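I am writing to request your help with a piece of structural work I have in hand. I set the record out below, with my sincere thanks for your time.
___
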Amino acid sequence: MKVDLHIHTYYSDGIYSPEKIVDTADQVGLDAIAITDHDNILAYDIARKHLDETGSKLELIRGIEVNTLYKNYEVHILGYFMNPNDNDFQAMIKAQQQARIKQAKEILALLSKKEGLKVKFEDVKKLVAEGGSIGRPHIAKAITNASPSTSLIDVYAKYINENSPVYVQRKTVSPHDAVEIIYDAGGIPVIAHPHDLDIAETLIKELMTCGLRGIEAYHRKHTPACVEYFSSMAEELGLIVTGGSDFHTPNIINGQINLGKSFVPEWVYDKLIKEKKLIDMA
């Protein structure tokens, strides 16, 4: 069984529609996927409808990737199988969306004031699907659209980083609250690509007290040694392991689609399903 539990659509910073993700997953031979857009779950129902219409046997899991901040670390929390109608879960998504819009508008204002770059919010908004999560990648793209001679690499180096004079930190939920809200909504909270965090082990132990149930050990950025390290940590702590490609877009150099390219063992999916049953029984 081939699975990919970390995929983005154009409802956040991916470029494919939910329908395109489903079709592509079928084409590359995946058996189960999770759509995990940043701070957004709108793609799930669209993908589900497309699956039903096409008769695809692909297993689709409702997911999310919540962007959080903790002591100036950006910590991403994946969630699976949440009840989308849970009040606290809905409130978290709404607050995250409002914070994204506020950040974008403040960055654009500083771009105009300090750099003389005139980029309209509407030009940023149209780069993401209606109701989708606006992020810094969309701002960067809007800047290059307004200044065609400027490359995306230059834009990121000059404007889309914490040391930029136009950088504005987003007001966002803490990883502890995100984990607790996902868990209380009947979901499985998992820390995403922990290799990015030099405080990973300490933070994982802290988050377990809030309901953390898994570690994303399999990820395209993780070396085999890294996979082994976090898999062993998960086993020691009694957590499950998840994984996925973290797919956003085809490779810009060779056009290769890495959807499903990260090797994720079949037992990962089995453990995820078992964990959901345990949470439902609790």
